[in-house]
Amino acid sequence: MSAASPAAMSSLPPVRVAALGVGVALLVLGLKFVAYRLTGSVALYSDALESIINVVASGAALLALWVAARPADASHPYGHTKAEYLSAVVEGVLIVLAALSILRVAVPELSHPRVVDAPWLGLGINLGASIINLIWASVLLRFGKASRSPALTADGKHVMSDVVTSVGVLIGVVLARFTGWHVLDPLLALLVAVNILWSGWGLLSSSVGGLMDAGVDPDTDTQLRRVISEEAIGALEIHDLRTRHSGQLTFVEFHLVVPSEMTVRDAHTICDRLEDAIQRVIGGAHVTIHVEPQDQAKHSGVLVI
């Protein structure tokens, strides 16, 4: 499996990528549970348990992308793209539940740590699963960026955090085997739980921001204001600029102040030019422009240069 170029990936339907992700997650889950059964390591058990969450999360992402791809209708005139944020919220909740399950198993092991049995084959299988996860996480992150998909980006970040966790677990189990400090095994499981909780918190906070109509990032906002100022030649002012994300879509709206004597045709020409310019900054943006006469100017916002 190799990471494709962003241009090639952007031509693939996100739903197809998510469906492939379910298969990858099931494969990794099977490998990690085999590794746990061979070693009896509670740290590898915690790693395998997180892979269950990966399977459920990949399924949730697939469902969300299928819903998000549905066209706008009478009940949802702005489309269904926010379903992707719901998927990311569900994934965050599942991550927290996984962490609590790991804590339930690991804490009793601190006082009576078990000896890790026959580790090398199990560790080798777990390492192979981690390599698969690393490749797939890279694909998800690149595709999520290319397609501006919150669901795939969240899934990619989650899988990548799983890779980091797995590497730490592997190093720790090897150290426990060589040093005889078997308590390292449950201690690593506790660290895995903390890492999972941190990952879940990050997903929840970013997803809730999308559900709460968070605007574009400061850098994009600066680019928008610069482009609008440069391309609104003939107008006087732009004010009340607002943006919001909705899944793969970005909505941009503002008021455009023009001279009172300007014709509708000329004002329309400026609007078309502005829409094209905004599309160069945010591909696929939905732009709404409200044209106002000169006496509505607020002398604030974006002044035309």
From TrEMBL:
Membrane topology of the entry: Multi-pass membrane protein
Domain Cation efflux protein cytoplasmic as annotated: residue spans: 219-293
InterPro entries documented for this protein: Cation_efflux, Cation_efflux_CTD, Cation_efflux_CTD_sf, Cation_efflux_TM, Cation_efflux_TMD_sf, CDF_Transporter
Record-annotated Cation efflux protein transmembrane domain positions: 21-212
GO cellular component, as recorded: plasma membrane
Transmembrane segments: 17-36, 48-68, 88-107, 119-143, 163-181, 187-204
SUPFAM superfamilies per record: Cation efflux protein cytoplasmic domain-like, Cation efflux protein transmembrane domain-like
Location of the protein in the cell: Cell membrane
A GO MF term: ferrous iron transmembrane transporter activity
Principal place of residence: membrane
Keywords: Cell membrane, Membrane, Transmembrane, Transmembrane helix, Transport
GO biological process: intracellular zinc ion homeostasis
Stated name of the protein: Cadmium transporter
Organism the protein comes from: Deinococcus wulumuqiensis
Lineage of origin: Bacteria, Thermotogati, Deinococcota, Deinococci, Deinococcales
